[in-house]
UniProtKB/TrEMBL annotation:
<keyword id="KW-1133">Transmembrane helix</keyword>
<feature type="transmembrane region" description="Helical">
    <location>
        <begin position="239"/>
        <end position="261"/>
    </location>
</feature>
<dbReference type="GO" id="GO:0016020">
    <property type="term" value="C:membrane"/>
</dbReference>
<feature type="transmembrane region" description="Helical">
    <location>
        <begin position="207"/>
        <end position="227"/>
    </location>
</feature>
<dbReference type="Pfam" id="PF20684">
    <property type="entry name" value="Fung_rhodopsin"/>
</dbReference>
<feature type="transmembrane region" description="Helical">
    <location>
        <begin position="12"/>
        <end position="32"/>
    </location>
</feature>
<keyword id="KW-0472">Membrane</keyword>
<comment type="similarity">
    <text>Belongs to the SAT4 family.</text>
</comment>
<feature type="transmembrane region" description="Helical">
    <location>
        <begin position="125"/>
        <end position="147"/>
    </location>
</feature>
<feature type="transmembrane region" description="Helical">
    <location>
        <begin position="44"/>
        <end position="68"/>
    </location>
</feature>
<feature type="transmembrane region" description="Helical">
    <location>
        <begin position="171"/>
        <end position="195"/>
    </location>
</feature>
<feature type="transmembrane region" description="Helical">
    <location>
        <begin position="88"/>
        <end position="113"/>
    </location>
</feature>
<dbReference type="InterPro" id="IPR052337">
    <property type="entry name" value="SAT4-like"/>
</dbReference>
<keyword id="KW-0812">Transmembrane</keyword>
<protein>
    <recommendedName>
        <fullName>Rhodopsin domain-containing protein</fullName>
    </recommendedName>
</protein>
<dbReference type="InterPro" id="IPR049326">
    <property type="entry name" value="Rhodopsin_dom_fungi"/>
</dbReference>
<feature type="domain" description="Rhodopsin">
    <location>
        <begin position="28"/>
        <end position="270"/>
    </location>
</feature>
Length: 374
């Protein structure tokens, strides 16, 4: 049996919707990272977060059928009295796993930014400070929630002793304030990070917007802060918890969703043709290479980081051979462009590694021979 009315359907519907978004994008994240060979610390952390989020999802969805979001007068009916205890138990699990889940979710997002900005020490140290702040605060909150009552089960059975409810409310306020501050700090940091990156404006905007999506998780925290006062309510306690559960789960679920979404740009680019970084435009009817746009493209697409160019066949059907020599750091590569894929090797660490081109310099020379057959 279950009790499912009042605000309980809102709790269940919100939790399931956000959970689907979070776990679908997590699966796409795993696929994208593995196929591109770019699995990193942030991916391990998000994988760790997927397990407590699953428990949090079960706790919130089950709470919707066990008294959370139900008006007090319904719970006082003889057949519904048990749901008062059941609802408190599932809310207790929500409180604990809210704190346990949000730590690896936020760490994953922070480590992704650290990975991008590994050469900017000021940015990296700021992120480490932010990570230490929210990890410490959420860990303190989790331990307090678990041990605020003696025995622990008194938190839902009311058999034992517990600290005053206003202390828990204060812990909530402090934790939420820290999470909001760190969310906004993390969301705004990509702006200076991308300022001098060599990509066109559209690409910068798209990357910055994706990295800054954590603001939406912060909005959930701001809204939840409004309902924290319900923790001290003597009446309609379980009914008032519905909004805390909804927005608390949204903060974690949306955090995972946007953290996953920020890694899917290569997948979007491949499937939808979005997110190119070149700012070059071509005249009407012409390709960026200056050849007619109706020319066919008989080559197989590779990752943009490795593509060298396109072989075109024109109506006159001339034979065209192209060779490209790439020289950098005393190393060179010479091969036909028909191979489509080139590998530029990093220079060695020897004394002459920089060559005459400067550190990291690359010089490309191209020779094209065209012969017409009568």
């Amino acid at each position: 049996m279950a009790i499912f009315m009042d605000d309980a359907p809102h709790v269940f519907g919100t939790v399931i919707t956000i959970a689907v978004l979070a776990y679908v994008t997590f699966g796409l994240r795993v696929y994208t990272r593995i196929t591109r060979g770019s699995w990193g610390m942030e991916d391990w952390l998000m994988t760790v977060a997927a397990f407590p989020l699953l428990i949090l999802t079960i706790a919130c969805a089950t709470a919707a059928f066990n008294g959370v979001g139900i008006h007090q007068w319904r719970l006082e009916l003889e057949q519904n009295v048990k749901y008062q205890t059941n609802g408190l138990f599932w809310f207790f699990l929500f409180e604990v796993f809210y704190c346990v889940t949000i730590i690896p979710v936020k760490l994953s997002i922070s480590f992704m930014l650290v990975r991008i900005a590994e050469n900017r020490s000021w940015f990296v140290w700021c992120q480490y400070g932010i990570m230490a702040l929210f990890t410490t605060m959420n860990a303190i909150a989790a331990f307090y929630i678990i041990f605020q009552c003696a025995p622990v089960s008194a938190a839902w059975t009311n058999v034992g002793t517990c600290n005053a409810s206003y202390i828990l409310a204060d812990i909530y306020y402090a934790t939420t304030a820290v999470n909001i501050f760190t969310d906004w700090a993390t969301a705004l940091m990509p702006i200076p990070l991308l300022w001098n990156v060599k990509m066109n404006t559209n690409a910068k905007v798209s990357v910055g917007a994706i990295l800054g999506l954590g603001i939406f998780a912060s909005i959930s925290a701001c809204i939840r802060l409004k309902y924290t006062v319900n923790l001290t309510s003597a009446t309609e306690y379980l009914y008032g918890l519905a909004n805390i559960v909804i927005w608390g789960y949204a903060e974690n679920g949306i955090g995972m969703f946007v953290g996953n979404l920020s890694t899917l740009r290569p997948l979007f680019r491949r499937v939808l043709g979005l997110g190119g970084s070149s700012g070059q435009t071509a005249p009407s009817g012409m390709t960026p290479n200056g050849l007619p746009s109706k020319a066919t493209h008989p080559y197989r697409s590779f990752d943009p980081g490795f593509e060298m160019g396109t072989m075109h066949s024109i109506k006159e059907k001339p034979s065209m051979a192209t060779s490209t020599q790439i020289v950098g750091n005393d190393r060179s590569s010479l091969s036909s462009d028909g191979e489509s894929q080139k590998h530029i090797m990093e220079g060695g660490s020897g004394a002459g590694g920089a060559g005459s081109f400067g550190a990291g310099g690359i010089v490309v020379s191209r020779q094209i021979d065209i012969s017409h057959h009568q």
